[in-house]
TrEMBL record, chain A:
Coiled coil: none annotated. Pfam families: BSD. One of its GO terms (biological process) is nucleotide-excision repair. This is BSD domain-containing protein. Residues 194-246 form the BSD domain. SMART domains: BSD.
UniProtKB/TrEMBL annotation, chain B:
Transmembrane segments: none annotated. GO terms for cellular component: transcription factor TFIIH core complex; transcription factor TFIIH holo complex. It holds the Pfam family Tfb4. One of its GO terms (molecular function) is zinc ion binding. It comes from the Eukaryota. Component of the general transcription and DNA repair factor IIH (TFIIH) core complex, which is involved in general and transcription-coupled nucleotide excision repair (NER) of damaged DNA and, when complexed to CAK, in RNA transcription by RNA polymerase II. In NER, TFIIH acts by opening DNA around the lesion to allow the excision of the damaged oligonucleotide and its replacement by a new DNA fragment. In transcription, TFIIH has an essential role in transcription initiation. Its main location: nucleus. Component of the 7-subunit TFIIH core complex composed of XPB, XPD, TFB1/GTF2H1, GTF2H2/P44, TFB4/GTF2H3, TFB2/GTF2H4 and TFB5/GTF2H5, which is active in NER. The core complex associates with the 3-subunit CDK-activating kinase (CAK) module composed of CYCH1/cyclin H1, CDKD and MAT1/At4g30820 to form the 10-subunit holoenzyme (holo-TFIIH) active in transcription. This is General transcription and DNA repair factor IIH subunit TFB4.
Amino acid sequence: MGSLTIGAKYKTTIKDPGTPGILRMNDDRFTFTPNDPRSAMKFNVDFRTIKGHKFNKVEGNKAALLNLSKEDKAGGYIFEFDNVGNRDLSRDFVARVLGKHQGIVPPRPTVTPENSVASAALEQLSAAEVERRVKLLREDRNYIRSLFLEIFCKNLNFGQQERTYLKMKQIKDQNKGQVSRMRLVDIKPTTDGRTNKVTFQITPEMIHQIFAEKPAVRRAYLDFVPKKMSETRFWEKYCRAEYLVRTKNTAAATAEAAGDEELAIFLKNDDILAKEAKMKIKRVDPTLDMEADTGDDYIHLPDHGIHRDGNKETVDADSELARRTLSQDLNRHAAVVLEGRSLDVESTDPKTLAEALVRSKKEPPSTSIVDDANHERLVKVARMTEIEDLQAPRSLPCMRPLCIKDPKEYFDSQQANALRSLGGSNDGRKARTCSLSTEEAFHHLMDQMSSIKVNKLNCPIIQSDMALKEVSKACLAELQLQEFLELTIPRSSIDGYPGIATAFLVIDPITSAVLYNKVQRVKEAMTQIYQKLQLIKESAQPDALDAAFNHDVEQQQKSSKAGNRHNGF
Amino acid sequence: MTSAHSKLYSDDVSLVVVVVDTNPFFWAAAALPFADFFAHLIHFVNSILLLNHLNRVVVIAAGVSSCAYILDSSDASPSGGVGVSDTFDRASRKAEEFIAQDARATAGNGSVASANATSLLSGALSLALCYIQRIFRSGTRHPQPRILCLQGSPDGPEQYVAVMNSIFSAQRSMVPIDSCIVGTQDSAFLQQASYITGGVYLKPQELNGLFQYLAAVFATDLHSRAFLRLPKTLGVDFRASCFCHKKTIDMGYVCSICLSIFCKNQKKCSTCGSEFSRVMPDLNSMPDQSK
């Protein structure tokens, strides 16, 4: 920790004029040596005996005092210094040493009233010092935060805290060229309760942020100031626009935008940002990168993001006014902070700042690189989107493309086809042109009607032989199918399966009694067979049964195929 | 009483108007004898009547020179009987009378050529639609009407306009037109009719089993058709006939006023009288109306 040698006056009491001498302090002890060698005010005190130290607030001509008190309030050592600086130095040193020894927070300096009482310890800070501290505390929240951390987390004394703060300020100064991490762009006005005035306070820090985050505003500033308007006027308009947006006064905003060109610029969407966003999105490979979040960067797209009041509104496409959403603003701020470009320009002049920002941003990629990147991206995309399974086999010969036939030819050919196909059928339905005369034709028809009257409905319209054959075939087929299904699928799952025979019987109405009887007998036989099959299945061994049934099914299929060919239907 | 009444008329009550082709020239040359055809028809009619006691069937015969109703199931029989044989008796008697009347009419009308004689489909469709309209106006509770055309004769291009008008009117009344072709050639008119009105077009392969085709495809009511897979045509012949020569054409001239179709360029539309050959007035000489 070192040592400190400083000139001071030792006082036994406050009123004591004091003995001038040298005060030497080190980590363990402090000594006071009076200038006058004959003086008896010489002492060598161990710091361990000192329990605390107090100092006074220096006002006017008051002396800077430092009181080192012993334990049990058994007295102390009062030193008077020539100036406050010396006193403070001593005080800090003492505080450090004491802190090291005791590990406790030193007591805060107490401010005594102006007419100080001798008995009370003088603990007065100078007004300037207090003002300085108050200013520090008010302006820099970081300081308060660090103070809190130091006091409650690290047990450092006040001197150390100040040092920590100074260190932080140093770091901050190093990052001065960069945009502050705190979002200052949201300038909050102060309102005078009585009048209708709204006051905005813009600091250079805020201007820096505004220029970094809103390139359109920066461009407007460079264009307008000082040619078209003064800086004050510019910021006035900007603040006005911001106020209108914040208060969601779209009607007033539109009106003002219509009237004032420059104001309108602040209310419109930032086109520079939009362009940048588009370029950025183009460079993103959608098949490989999940980087792009279109909702944030596409500030011109409607229906994205949450508006500042938390609800989702649809954008009126006609309105030119920008609808900024909270997420967009936050993301823009974050992007600017992360870019982390520090400028060489230290000055707070907005103009130079703006120009510097413009210069720093002007780094267009060379077109050849962009093209190559683009080309590469497209190739990648093409590769990614090809799904091998769905590719057409390239080895097959090309198919003939479809063509629309001439409808006349098509329908004429259909007629020909119909005639040809009918010619081949057993009915032999051909288009025979009627060679009869009108009378003959009508006669023929009348004869037909007479035959109808004679025969009435005696001739069945369904040929029973053919129908029976069809029904038998259907029943046999169903039987085989049922057997096969039973072997492969459990009975319970095919209970709902409609029988072919039953379906056939439903659609084909039976007109002949003979046919009906035959069908009934077939049905009875079928049910008996099912029951028998069931018994066999339950009693016999599964393996043998399976083999037997397979063999049987094969046999029956062979016989039915032969049968089919024989029938010729 | 009203609740019971409401249950009487459900979705599956049908009114089927059957248009039967009785062109003697066609039936003289047809493979299926007219007697058999008639038997199939009567059985089909009975089947429909059996499906629902409120079903109604009307049979219209389309002859060469005339059309007539030959059966109306709602008519009381003179003998007082109801049944298959009764239906058959009534229908056959009326059919015979109609054929005789048609013969007389055709003999008197000398312009009918035997080879190309067509049945009066347009007239029969008009009769059917008129009957259906009467049913519509009889009250809110009426059966679902549909038309079934049993056609064998070829299409008569001279009937194109009338048939198309009938088709459009059926479409407007939401009356489906089903077609069953018992002849050898497809009918372009009926293809279009079934297509436009949402009916079924069928050309059975085996005419001996005509009844089975009719019962399986055409007997179902309109409501149940939604659940069935009925036969679909491969294509529809949308060719029109020209109004001037009644030729079937696929490329022609259309009047922009009345949409009449002509095979050749004409100066004047024969349907609506618009003049085609009118020269457009010179635009420069016309007064500027904007000023």
